[in-house]
Amino acid sequence: MKPDWLDKKEYPFKSKFIELEAGKMHYIDEGKGNPIVMIHGTPSWSFLYRNLIKILRKKYRCIAMDMIGFGLSDKPDSWDYRPRSHAANFQQLMEHLQLKNVTLLVHDFGAPIGLAYAINHPENVSSIVMLNSWTWSLSKHQSFGKASKYLVGPLGKFLHSKLNVSAHTLIHELFKDEEQMPEPIKEHYIKALGNPEDRVRNLACARELIGVSKWYDELWKERHKIQDIPTLILWGERDKLIKVEALQRWKVFFHECYVIPFEDGGHFLQEESAEDIANYVGNFVKEESKKHEAISN
């Protein structure tokens, strides 16, 4: 049953769930064709991809999950909320759906989650679409370090639980031209984090951005397994959290890489430029499919 605060016209998808050890994980599976699997970051959920899915499901099978603790998925008390655990959950979903010839669309915190799967199963991933993301240790990253200290400190926990400051602050900082976003849309991101007690538990996600350097380093050491996968990078150049230096690193990383910069775009291009993003993604998947068919023949 969908919550009362969810606008079913804005998010007109049939909910599906997979039962995991951590609880029920929500996902949507819309359309037919080559699968495009969309992975959100924090503090978002599959709602972020709603406008892309409305366009792309006409020609492709669009799948978007809500990580445990986010969106319409369960928010268990005792789960660890570590990136490695989120990645394991995602792998279970992929095994459940038995997908092949997948395009992974990753963003933010979702990049290490999705790319961990690609590293383990490169034979199932035909292409990657990346929006502002990273997949390496952030232990020396100044902006993430400051954010983490704020979010996990005693004052941050109090403000987060009592005044809802951190969710509003993140949205204010990360969404470009926030005043142009309707208040009901912003509320979908805030309310999807659950009640104040749930939000405090989800601070583990912010803490783990810094605290799992070893896991990020393990992924980075295995990067050669995915460097030949054709990749489209769509990058908001005015992102206040993930700087353009990360884009330069990705451009060197992938051997077959196409980059489309959004000069006036911020961290959440899916909200700012959904139609453009959907068109770029659709055209990229179409062209990569043609190349794959030509090679097969």
TrEMBL record:
<feature type="domain" description="AB hydrolase-1">
    <location>
        <begin position="34"/>
        <end position="273"/>
    </location>
</feature>
<keyword id="KW-0378">Hydrolase</keyword>
<dbReference type="InterPro" id="IPR000639">
    <property type="entry name" value="Epox_hydrolase-like"/>
</dbReference>
<dbReference type="InterPro" id="IPR029058">
    <property type="entry name" value="AB_hydrolase_fold"/>
</dbReference>
<dbReference type="GO" id="GO:0016020">
    <property type="term" value="C:membrane"/>
</dbReference>
<dbReference type="InterPro" id="IPR050266">
    <property type="entry name" value="AB_hydrolase_sf"/>
</dbReference>
<protein>
    <submittedName>
        <fullName>Alpha/beta fold hydrolase</fullName>
    </submittedName>
</protein>
<dbReference type="Pfam" id="PF00561">
    <property type="entry name" value="Abhydrolase_1"/>
</dbReference>
<dbReference type="InterPro" id="IPR000073">
    <property type="entry name" value="AB_hydrolase_1"/>
</dbReference>
<dbReference type="GO" id="GO:0016787">
    <property type="term" value="F:hydrolase activity"/>
</dbReference>
